[in-house]
From TrEMBL:
It comes from Halostreptopolyspora alba. GO terms for molecular function: DNA binding; DNA-binding transcription factor activity. It comes from the Bacteria. SUPFAM superfamilies: Periplasmic binding protein-like II (SSF53850), Winged helix' DNA-binding domain (SSF46785). This is LysR family transcriptional regulator. Pfam families: HTH_1, LysR_substrate. Gene3D superfamilies: Periplasmic binding protein-like II, Winged helix-like DNA-binding domain superfamily/Winged helix DNA-binding domain.
């Protein structure tokens, strides 16, 4: 069996995107060439790695098992290439991010200053892949926003900051000119949400008013996709108030919800012993979030 690093890079790209077209664009390959690489890899490991239909691509159990192994193999190969070019292989910290936030930018600026001999890799994971990537070992930590308490007991979590919530609407929406709204105003709304129904239900159940469950359109994989659908008038969304600063654009309104629970951003980590640079990064996160001097 001859499995190459190129096979593993192709596999990881498809595993992250769960879409052959997007993965092929990332790798600068044609979709047909990428498909052939994956078929070759599956033949050589004698296991199916993806379930493919005309509508979706999903990892099989074997594919999920391979993800952390492939990630380590690719990272080790990159370290060898750095060594071969005479470069000192600095430690790598792979940071997963659910949505952008000004506080995250402050943390990364402090970390780059306080831990200079680290190569930083930031992965925009969106809502669907955030926890899976951490569990699979493709990132070392992940920043994720929750309205409910930390939701993954198999992972360690550190609460970093919280913020109020806003209603995201089209500028043409019936509530677009309001200075603020309350949860009762949203009883008849349709909420654009993510494809993962468990993630959607957890987020929106926390802001549900008395009455029937909220109507959810589980259409998106990322916050950018949610914003585009809200701007088009497909539905509305509930987000942390920092979205007004980070994602402001024409066609959208961000309206404070005066009685919504606060959204908390957690730093999630795999349980167990961690490398010293990652422990130092955790401390930087806690210091910046608490306002401690650095």
């Amino acid at each position: 069996m001859d499995v190459t690093i190129h096979h593993l890079r192709c596999f990881l790209a498809v595993a992250r995107e769960l879409h052959f077209g997007r993965a092929a664009a990332e790798l600068h390959l044609s979709p047909s060439s990428l498909s052939e690489q994956i078929r070759t890899l599956e033949r050589r490991v004698s296991r199916p790695l993806f379930q493919r239909t005309s509508r979706a691509v999903e990892l099989t159990e074997y594919g999920a098992e391979l993800m952390p192994l492939a990630a380590r193999a690719v990272e080790a190969t990159d370290e060898v290439l750095l060594w071969a070019h005479g470069e000192i292989a600095a430690p790598v910290i792979r940071v997963g991010l659910m949505v952008s936030n000004p506080e995250f930018s402050r943390i990364m600026a402090a970390a780059a200053a306080r831990i200079p001999n680290v190569r930083w890799r930031i992965r925009q994971l969106g809502f669907v892949d955030c926890y899976n990537a951490l569990e699979a070992g493709t990132v070392d930590c992940a920043f994720a926003a929750e309205i409910s308490p930390a939701s993954h007991p198999q992972l360690e979590s550190r609460a970093l900051w919280d913020e109020g919530c806003v209603l995201v609407t089209s500028e043409r929406h019936r509530l677009a000119d309001r200075q603020s709204v309350c949860l009762a105003d949203l009883a008849d709304e349709t909420f654009v949400s993510v494809e993962d129904e468990e993630v959607s239900a957890r987020w929106f159940s926390a802001v549900n008013v008395d009455g029937p469950p909220p109507r959810l359109l589980s259409l998106a994989r990322s916050f950018e996709e949610i914003l585009e659908l809200c701007a088009a008038g497909v539905g509305v969304n509930i987000a942390g108030e920092s979205a007004r600063e980070t994602y402001a654009r024409s066609g959208l309104r961000f309206i404070p919800i005066v009685d919504a629970p606060r959204a908390t951003t957690y730093l999630y980590l795999r349980a167990g012993r961690r490398p010293t640079p990652l422990e130092r990064f955790v401390q930087v996160c806690l210091d910046v979030a608490s306002g401690a001097p650095h």
